[in-house]
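re: ur question from the group chat, yeah i did fold both. here u go
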Amino acid sequence: MISLDEIRRARERIGDDVLRTPLVPLGTDARIRLKLECLQPVGSFKLRGALSAVRAASRAELAAGVVTASAGNMAQGVAWAAREAGVPARVICPDSAPRAKLDRIEALGGKVVPVPHEEWWQAMLDRGRDGVDGFFVHPVADEAVMAGNGTIGLELAEDAPQFDTVIIPWGGGGLATGIASAVKALRPNVRVVTAEPDTAAPLAAAFAAGEPSEIEFTSSWIDGAGGPALLPGMWEHARGLVDEAVALPLAEVEEAVRLLSSRAHVVAEGAGALALAAALRREDRCVCIVSGGNIDPDVLARILGATLA
């Protein structure tokens, strides 16, 4: 758990440089409310954690630049934060990352270092990669990053009407840990539910088994959530903060993308639609974290085109 004091310090570091994102109903359905992190300047919540971490570092730590390992969204946040700090950003990313995300990283001044998926995952475990120098900002497991993510939870506690459940996409766990830390401190009766694609759902498997366990991992169009395994230390966070972990079929996530487009007029990537897909299975009052909107245009066209077909 991240302390409430640390989350509040992260909010002071970030200041007004991130959007206080709106909380809106899903069309006319007031049971489901959407926290639109897809509206951040980089298209996802990741700017919160990136700015928190980079601004918490000293000038000496930043002297050689900043490095992260990311499939795209954290890379954009770190590139933004590094550009603001006046230092270079290097991004270790899987060579399967969507071209649209890589283009935006480079537009922000980041240098992309593409590697096979297994080597990208290892860079997260090792907190860096040989030959790629700089201050490493872990996309998930840095306390300053999780505290930055937790500022979303502060906003929910301040802005949201009564709700029963907050549903958060689980990628590495940094978003869920940050938000849940704040929500559990300020609204302890709210349930925390995580959502993963069922092709890559290590947290749901861990909850089912009572401990981390091996899963069969299959990559999919949902590139910002799920993974082959839990990152070190994240099970301990989840066990103390998460009430339920849900794994969702890809078809249900595609339907959530279509609903977000048609009923809320929102473009969401796969990870950003996961929470709504989980909420549609429930009957209680939910807040869904729409974590990002950086979807590959071809993927979006395929999903929306299925409605016409």
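okk and heres the other one u asked abt
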Amino acid sequence: MKEIIPIACDHAGYQLKLKVIEFLKSKDLDVIDFGTDSEESCDYPDFAHKVGSAINNGTYKRGIVICGSGNGVQMTVNKYPNVRCALSWTPEIAHLGRQHNDANIVSIPARFISTEDALQVVNEFLQTSFEGGRHQRRVEKINKLL
């Protein structure tokens, strides 16, 4: 069964989201698009929550969120206890987010990254496995309150 990747964005990330969806489909991945569906101003949490919830409850394994800075959508999805979202503006950051932090959502800053770089970020996020080992212990501590 093909992996399904949920994706969401706000108005600032709409055009980039279209390119990312095209890229994902070219990699023979299915996509569920949680919106937004235009460049009309909107509230990013309305769309990011849909991806965060779907990853949190295990419906999907990995997801993508996009907004102008990447911060708002990242903050929103990281409210879910089973979500580890990595704000990634380079492939190296996406790689480390997966390899060391077991990130299951990548956040992309549409206003600060080229389409080419964003697609490289997505590719790296999808291709990289969690290393485990010493990193597993650290990931387990993320949701522990001191």
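fwiw on the second one: Strands lie at 4-9, 30-33, 63-67, 85-87, 105-109. Residues 4-140 form a domain with the Ribose 5-phosphate Isomerase B; Chain: A, fold (CATH 3.40.1400.10). idk if thats what u expected
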